[in-house]
Write a structure and sequence with these properties.
alpha+beta; Dipeptide-binding Protein, domain 3; four-stranded mixed beta sheet; 27% helix; disordered N terminus
Length: 610
């Protein structure tokens, strides 16, 4: 399933696995569908358990964004989309936050899927319409699907690759037919399809950036903006889906303004000065030491720790294997040996963080632990001659230190790997078989990462490596990432509790050559491709888990990333004017379900006035 992105229209993340029973065939059209097991919410439910249906509407809220924007079409590769621009478009279905991967109808009224999942059919709601009053039709759905696959971001081509045909199957019906019926996630993937207006785009170039807000159907529309400086969204007063169960209790703010800042340091100062209302803090240093202003001490600013058990993410220094310097797995292992997490966590992060040791987080069902056994081992045996021998004999472990800054054992391991790869030290420089020093650039887009990266660079230099740091602005960074113009960079790949089609875009050989794909490391490995397909076609949860563990193990032993650190909670700072539901579905910060509390708002204004 698609990774979690903040969107005010829905919450598309997952939580704890509740059932391992295979989803039966739908007995005709139904309003909700689960990847595995039964849906939690029955037909006719009133609202999601974690939403407050009585939340008051209203209030003007300010948030922040970093960098710039030049586009209101978030579905193309060109340009930088404005913050929350996806909130202006409704999707066929929305995910619930308290089930593994279950979706409920929004634009559609029902979904129908046969036992073999060889096709899916959506019946659209007749009341669903765009802001201009025109109905959302099967023609709009079909045009959107075809356009995104042909002209949208590269991920849509891999996501929808197993759809062989889409057709109108009735006055309000759209039917998608699949290859072979093996891609069991595909009905839900199609449920995430945003629906665009075919008529609106008829005389416009979909592939060009635009600062004309497109016609949408969502709960918010663009109200005002200044390119690169701010964008304001206003709640649609007659939003057609406001009273549907899947929308009740959310989209409560009257306006949401995103002010753009050069970097996170400037953004933090602006928040503390009262320039905006809500901040998700990602810096341990700032969380520990920067929130000491009078406003915090007086209780005008709240600091909340919100659990986020999803935590399925690989964050680290991604090595671009398209570059010759990182072709050799032994060289990549030496890069991993040189990162001292324990010292970094102790001296820079106040001990807040945990080390990442899996691409799928702290999930014993999906993460490679110990030695491969059972179904996972059976899968890996098929590729034994293509995998490192130690994958079968040694549990994978990331290097550790004592946190003192001395990493001699890891340094010896790094030198050994580099020597085996043909490198040697001459006059303090690590020189390869071609006589040139091993040299590369670490590309960053956030100045705050410099203090983390520079100690890592010092360790690399102790190995004789010429490592350099370069920090550029967000738009330049995005262009270079889209064209894979980097040696090493900090990357983040989020996973869900129900991995699926996105694995092709994360690790697939085809994605490695597709500009704008999320295969940051440029992985081209037939074993990774095969295991990704096994995940996508897994008939049940045990098969999915075994294939995911196998993929995790192969990626870890491939040494594509220097694993960094993660925090299994969200740090949220807010000016004390908000209410939020008490039932947190364990997926962390999600202001789409918050509201402005009139009493708190009045009290805050009185205190600030004083």
């Amino acid at each position: 399933m698609l990774a979690r992105l903040f969107a005010l229209t829905c919450l598309a993340t997952t939580t704890l696995w509740a059932s391992a029973v295979a989803q039966p065939a739908t007995s005709g059209p139904v309003p909700g569908f689960a990847m595995h097991g039964d849906v939690k919410y029955p037909p006719g439910f009133k609202n999601f358990d974690y939403a407050n249906p009585d939340a008051p509407k209203g209030g003007d809220v300010k948030m922040s964004a970093i960098g710039t924007f030049d586009n209101f079409n978030p579905y193309i590769l060109r340009g930088v989309p404005a913050a929350a621009s996806g909130a202006t478009f409704d999707t066929l279905m929305v995910s619930s936050a308290d089930e593994p991967f279950t979706m409920y109808c929004l634009v559609c009224k029902t979904i129908e899927v046969p036992a073999d999942r060889s096709w899916t059919e959506f019946t659209l709601r007749r009341e669903a319409h765009f802001w201009d009053g025109s109905p959302i039709t099967p023609e709009d759905v079909i045009w959107t699907f075809d356009t995104l696959r042909a002209k949208g971001q590269p991920l849509y081509r891999s996501y929808y690759g197993d759809v062989v045909k889409v057709e109108q199957s009735g006055p309000d019906k759209v039917k998608f037919i699949f290859k072979g019926g093996d891609n069991r996630e595909l009905p839900l993937i199609l449920g995430q399809l945003p629906v665009l207006s075919k008529k609106y785009w008829a005389n416009r170039d979909f592939e060009k950036t635009t600062l004309e807000p497109p016609l949408g159907s969502g709960p918010y529309k663009i109200d005002s903006f200044e390119a690169g400086r701010y964008v304001t969204l206003r709640r649609v007063p007659d939003y057609w889906a406001a009273n549907l169960p899947v929308m009740r209790g959310q989209n409560n703010f009257e306006t949401i303004r995103y002010d753009y800042y050069l970097d996170q340091n400037v953004s933090l100062e602006a928040f503390l000065a009262g320039k905006y209302d809500l901040r998700l803090e990602r810096s341990a240093k700032d969380w520990a030491s920067s929130y000491t202003t009078p406003a915090v001490q007086a209780g005008l600013i709240r600091r909340d720790v919100i659990p986020d058990i999803t935590g399925r993410v690989m964050q680290g220094y991604f090595m671009n294997t398209r570059r010759p310097v990182f072709k050799d797995r032994r060289v990549r292992q030496a890069m991993i040996d040189a990162f001292d997490f324990e010292w970094t966590n102790k001296n820079l992060f106040y001990g807040f963080y945990s080390r990442i040791d899996s691409y799928f987080g702290k999930d014993d069902q999906l993460s490679a632990r110990g030695l491969p056994t059972g179904a996972e081992l059976a899968l890996l045996e098929k590729f034994r001659d293509k995998l490192p021998p130690e994958l079968f004999t040694e549990p994978h472990k990331v290097p550790t230190t004592d946190g003192t800054g001395e990493w001699r054992e890891n340094q010896r391991d790094a030198f050994r790997n580099l020597r085996d790869a043909g490198y040697k030290v001459e006059n303090g420089k690590l020189v390869g078989p071609d006589g040139n020093q091993l040299s590369f650039e670490i590309l960053l887009n956030d100045p705050r990462f410099e203090r983390i990266t520079l100690p890592y660079v010092q360790n690399l230099r102790r190995l004789g490596i010429d490592a350099r740091v370069r920090t550029i602005d967000a738009s330049q960074y995005q262009r270079r990432m889209d064209s894979f113009d980097f040696d090493m960079t900090v990357g983040l790949v989020p996973e869900s509790e129900s991995p699926g089609n996105e694995q092709r875009d994360f690790w697939g050989s085809a994605a490695a050559d597709t500009p704008g794909s999320r295969n940051i490391a440029g992985i081209k490995d037939p074993v990774v491709d095969a295991l990704s397909e096994m995940i996508i076609t897994a008939p049940d949860r045990p098969s999915l888990a075994a294939a995911t563990r196998a993929l995790d193990r192969v990626l870890l032993w491939g040494n594509y990333v220097v694993p960094q650190f993660w925090l299994y909670q969200d740090w949220v700072a807010s000016w004390d004017r908000f209410g939020r539901p008490p039932d947190n579905p364990h997926v962390g910060y999600n202001p789409g379900f918050w509201w402005v509390d009139p009493q708190k708002d009045a009290a805050l204004k009185a205190k600030r006035g004083g």
